[in-house]
Design goal:
By secondary structure, this protein is an alpha/beta fold. It contains seven helices and 26 strands.
């Protein structure tokens, strides 16, 4: 059986950053497996700017950002296979893949890095009544059709969901001459970044209706109109609040789901909140030698954070491959409460951790004038004031290794929001 030190599943921003970091950490034998015909992943269809401010200190479009990492991977001579679908990964890190040239192959990996990204929630998961006419697209599919294939998907548009892709497509459709009638959002807050609400909706006078959802799709052959209605606190439509909009297109931007079928197939423990694997501070899953990073781990708001996280996964996978023996240290659990929906990572080896560990999380609602508090076994360690916390914006706290020296018996770290007194 062919062997490789590190096999990376996915050649998008996470996979590329992980590969470059692993090579720089001294691992020569790396292979990237990518199912698409080109490297770069979803960034290739994201032709808007706003990428790279953290990583490159300049504003780039998605393809430009991807091109930088593709260039780095090529400079490091990291081999990759395109149009290659991974169909199974065993607990022993045997990776089965299939492509036209080689058929079905199985390779053995010293370490595996999962970087498969995420997919959109489809119409079938939303339980919207109505027929199944033409003109209903997920926002990402519409983005690909317009930006890469050159098709105009519609002229009069209603968008359900105010995730970042939906907001960006509201602007994109408008710039291409379409009329975006309304963006309806089920929740009482937007799921997207504040800057996208301002730049994509407010700047183009596109109305955003919070606590609204689509209750009917009209038309049999092609969409002819949409009925939306207000929803109550139970998220169910309120009778008598229905509004009809004539349109020929409905875009769905109703959340992203990490692409974890392979991960579940390995029997890796999953986090029910993120729909990604549980990981430690090295971004290693419960299966030894299998690491995860990027949107397959939890959905990010900025690609810069994906690259940062993937760089860590690449370094730690390299360390795993190069190590002679592993000495387990004190493991503590991380949990979120009182508004903090989850944390990544979920556990830490505080004896063998890096000097600094970034813990990322999202909150479950819009909060104003709150503090993010960190507790070690119930004792308040740090407090960070925030004017606004929103589900669309990822938050983070940085834990220092030296801060654990005074806590030899530490069992649990809790991150929570608290109201300013």
């Amino acid at each position: 059986m062919i062997q490789h030190d590190i096999v990376i599943i996915g050649g998008g921003p996470a996979g590329l950053a992980a590969a470059v970091a692993a090579r720089k950490a001294g691992v020569q034998d790396i292979l990237i497996l990518e199912r698409d015909g080109v490297l770069g992943g979803i960034l290739n269809q994201c032709i808007h700017n706003g990428f790279g401010l953290h990583t490159f200190k300049e504003e780039l479009t998605g393809p430009e950002y991807a091109a930088r990492f593709i260039e780095m991977a090529k400079e490091e001579n990291i081999p990759y296979k395109l149009n290659t679908m991974v169909i199974d990964i065993s607990k022993d890190r045997e990776v089965a893949f299939i492509n036209k040239e080689e058929g079905l192959q199985v390779i053995k990996a010293g370490a595996v890095i999962l970087a498969m990204g995420c997919r959109e929630r489809p119409r079938g998961a939303l339980n919207i009544p109505g027929y199944r006419p033409a003109g209903i697209y997920s926002a990402g599919t519409a983005q690909r059709l317009m930006n890469m294939e050159g098709y105009m998907v519609g002229k009069e548009v209603v968008i359900l969901g105010s995730g970042d892709i939906g907001l960006i497509m509201a602007r994109r459709m408008t710039l291409e001459g379409a009329t975006v009638k309304v963006v309806a959002e089920l929740m009482p807050y937007s799921g997207g970044l504040k800057r996208n609400i301002v730049q994509c909706l407010d700047d183009f006078n596109i109305p955003l209706k919070l606590s609204h959802t689509v209750v009917n799709i009209h038309g049999k052959e092609r969409v002819t109109g949409i009925t939306i209605a207000e929803v109550g606190p139970d998220r169910k439509p309120v009778p008598g609040t229905e509004e009809y909009y004539s349109c020929d297109t409905l875009l769905l931007s109703c959340g992203l789901i990490p692409e974890n079928e392979l991960t579940r197939g390995m029997g890796v423990a999953m986090n029910p909140v993120t729909s990604g694997p549980m990981v430690n501070d090295k971004l290693e899953t419960g299966t030894e030698g299998v690491f995860a990073c990027g949107n397959v781990l939890h959905v990010h708001d900025l690609v810069d954070y994906v690259s940062e996280e993937a760089t860590l996964a690449g370094k730690d996978a390299a360390a795993f491959v190069n190590q002679t023996e592993k000495v387990a240290g004190r493991v503590v659990t991380l949990t979120g409460e009182n508004g903090v929906r989850y944390t990544v990572p979920q556990s830490m080896d505080i004896d063998n951790m890096n000097p600094l560990v970034t813990v990322r999380f999202r909150v479950g609602d819009v909060y104003k004038d709150r503090s993010i508090c960190v507790y070690y076994d119930g004792k308040l360690i740090s407090k960070m004031k925030k004017k606004v916390l929103a589900p669309g914006e990822m938050e983070q706290v940085i834990l220092k290794k030296e801060s654990f020296e005074e806590y030899p018996e530490l069992k649990e770290i809790v991150i929570r929001t608290e109201e300013e007194k």
